[in-house]
Write a structure and sequence with these properties.
It is built from 14 helices and twelve strands. It has 406 residues and is an alpha/beta fold.
Length: 406
């Protein structure tokens, strides 16, 4: 990786050259096939392995960048992250092109028309809570569905600047998917109502919660329609989400929602029963998820007792198995009919004294999942505890065991 010194533009071009070399290599073509096989329900020779560091300031400090211009610094940072991921040695994919996000901008100051405040502990990286604006049912009237616009001029400016930087090295293209983390109704509801009040309302004021969730569902369905109507959506079945099932057979070049992956999750509903999960969340997520070609569901929540509920999503392709979801029960329920994203517990990996317990955990899990379309994910890394080499060690062991057991 290029040293953080010298002329910024030359440095960026050097980084882009290295990224292009990797993207066009046989190794990266093999990685694309690996992910495509896993997501298309063809069992690859071994499970794909991916690490998503969340502690980038420990790995690539922002202060180490050469570029001072904000636009160029952002590009440089992305390139350095990409090349650092290559050094980790997982199954990261670098595409032979560079995506420039379309400048899709929110109209107005607040996503749902009302301000959401935060009270912080004052400790860097410490706890915080929402200062939620919806406190009485009448406050729901204050919610305004989001409106977005495409700033075509800014998109063209960003595209042109990137093209001028290194378009002769990495072809540049505009990318656009649905904003936010998909059917995130639970997240918006807790931002607007607060976590504890929302859980209490499900018992004390159920009709109020139904009204709120319907407003959020309809508002995000409107956002989806806005983006589809703009005609700027681009395929998202690339990289780690590569698959053969998208776009649809009748695709004519204009990307529709049904040509894309969608996603859902339910972290704030971790503690509610399956019946409440279905009543207050999934039934409102379902119309959103059904608009997409394929979906995946789950994040850090324990879905052990809700497996059947999640499998009721008609276009579900990938089930996210958190460290707290029972892998054995999930495997018994899904077999080889769905892909499984098996997430590892970050603290166990970071703070383990050596690789022995990690190795045993991976062996045990992959034996349970033998015969499934599983891939192994490490994320939610808030720190590496001064041991950045642990990421390379983990990736090496996960690939090694996957090749033998998986």
């Amino acid at each position: 990786m290029a040293a953080a010194q010298g002329d910024p533009r030359s440095t960026i071009r050097e980084l882009a050259t290295r990224a292009a070399e990797l993207a066009h290599s046989e190794e990266y073509a093999r990685r694309r096939r690996l992910w495509c096989d896993a997501n298309s329900l063809r069992r690859p020779k071994r499970p794909p392995v991916i690490c998503h560091p969340g502690c980038w300031e420990e790995l690539v400090p922002w202060a180490s960048l050469v570029s001072q211009d904000p636009f160029e610094a952002n590009v440089e940072y992305q390139l350095r992250q990409m090349l650092y991921k290559h050094e980790i040695g997982d199954d990261t994919v670098i595409e032979p092109w560079w995506g420039v996000p379309a400048a899709v901008e929110l109209e107005g100051e607040h996503e749902w028309g009302v301000p959401i405040g935060y009270t912080h502990s004052g400790v860097r990286g410490g706890a915080w809570r929402y200062e939620h604006p919806i406190r009485e049912e009448a406050d729901i009237e204050r919610i305004v569905p989001p409106r977005y616009r495409h700033n075509a001029g800014r998109t063209e400016e960003n595209l042109s600047r990137t093209q001028e930087l290194f378009g002769d090295i990495l072809p540049v293209r505009v990318t656009c998917s649905v904003p936010g983390p998909g059917a995130w109704l639970h997240g918006w509801a807790t931002q607007l109502c607060g976590v504890q009040p929302l859980l209490l309302h499900m018992m004390d004021r159920p009709q109020w919660v139904h009204r709120l969730m319907a407003v959020l569902r309809d508002g995000f369905m409107g956002v989806m329609a806005q983006l589809e109507g703009m005609g700027i959506l681009t395929p998202n079945n690339t990289g780690l989400m590569a698959c053969d099932d998208l776009p649809q057979p009748d695709f004519d070049g204009r990307v529709r929602l049904r040509d894309l992956w969608g996603r859902g999750e339910s972290q704030e509903f971790q503690g509610v029963s399956p019946a409440q999960h279905e009543e207050f969340l999934l039934r409102y997520q379902m119309p959103i998820l059904e608009r997409f070609g394929l979906t995946f569901y789950g994040c850090c929540e324990d879905l052990t007792n809700k497996i059947g509920l999640i499998l009721s999503i008609p276009n579900l392709r990938k089930f996210v198995c958190s460290p707290w979801t029972n892998l054995e029960k999930l495997v018994a329920a899904v077999g080889d009919r769905y892909a499984i994203e098996w997430r590892q517990k970050a603290t166990d990996v970071v703070f383990a004294p050596d690789m022995a317990p990690i190795r045993e955990h991976l062996k045990r899990g992959l034996r349970i999942a033998k015969g499934t379309c599983i891939h192994i994910v490490l994320q939610e890394l808030e720190t590496l505890n001064g041991r950045p080499e642990r990421l390379r060690e983990w990736a090496e062991v996960a690939k090694e065991i996957g090749a033998v057991v998986g």
